[in-house]
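Reading a protein record of the kind used here takes little practice once its layout is understood. The reader may check this reading against the record printed directly beneath this paragraph.
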Amino acid sequence: MLSSPDGHRWRVALPKQVASQPLALLVDDAPDVLTTTGRFLESAGFDVVRATDGRAALIELASGQEFVLLVTDYAMPVLNGVELTERVRQSLLEIVRDDADAWFAAKSLAQFLQHRC
């Protein structure tokens, strides 16, 4: 928040950091797999964020970064790959549902205004 001597205040919003390459989240509890698979993904053109278990992956997913790919191990401590993908799927369904509700509300408002004007 910025303010001037006369008391006016402005909120400054910086643009989102845009990754130069698509972003992948790689989740595995084996360090050698994180290294080799991470290098493979990087050579395929991805920026790679690595997580050592499902809980750490959920934290990365909640960070606001825009992942386009999730690669996960099946058997991991804390939260396995199936549980992780199920939680991600549920989150995506909620986002799609919220976006769809917003789209329908906007469309309904546009139709209403179109008929009123």
Summary: Residues 111 and 117 are 10 Å apart (CA to CA).
